[in-house]
Give the backbone structure.
Amino acid sequence: MPYIRPMYNSEGSCISYFVCCPGSGVAAVIDPSEDVGQYLSAAKGEGCVITHVIDTHVHSDHVSGARKLVEKLRGEPLLVMTKGTDVSFDYTQVDEGDSIEVGDASLVGMRTPGHTQESMSFLYRDKKRATEPWGVFTGDSLFVGDIGRLDLVGHGTLRQAYESLVRLRSLPDYVELYPAHYAGSDCASNRNLSFKTSSTIGFEARHNRMLMWHSFEEFEEVMAREPVSPPATWREIKLRNQGRLSSVGAIRSQ
Ligand SMILES: [Fe+2]
């Protein structure tokens, strides 16, 4: 049976996911942190090959471990990013409705622009259990108690964010929510990001105040009164993750 193993990185309050199908001997990693040894150990422990390394978007708060993990595995896994993502290196494109097969699990792309233009959520399906989705990996589009901030370079429009959140909120109540951050992250829109690391769409639709609006105009009002300071080094972190800067700190004086 496939399973989802969340992996936590307290620096940046990040959550990455090891999605594994031991029966098929394959695994995928979603939003890996720089400490890639944990994914290599997990794969070794299960006797699995990592076939896909996925970044839901270009991160601005922490250095992604995606390229490092692919390099460690001698380029064997596919480095997967949303079609049209603005980076300087090659990657395998995923778009709305595309399915990534991980043995008996599948990850189906669902575009959710807002936090960034390229933000992609992935519906998780366990084909042994059901044809309908069981969970959704939302990256920084939707968190437990919060949503991703919309004020960094490359973000989508307010209208796009609204439409993305309407789509996510419209998923069945029982769908489990697997976000890329928990409390303490700079990627949140307000101070309500929870220390709880997972939730369901139904609970968030009812109790996440960043989702408790009834119109675009109400959403605009919520976003207007929730500004928070951006992370200090987000520009250089983003450039690093785009492959345009070798190390964070190089342009800190700008
Ligand atoms: Fe982000």
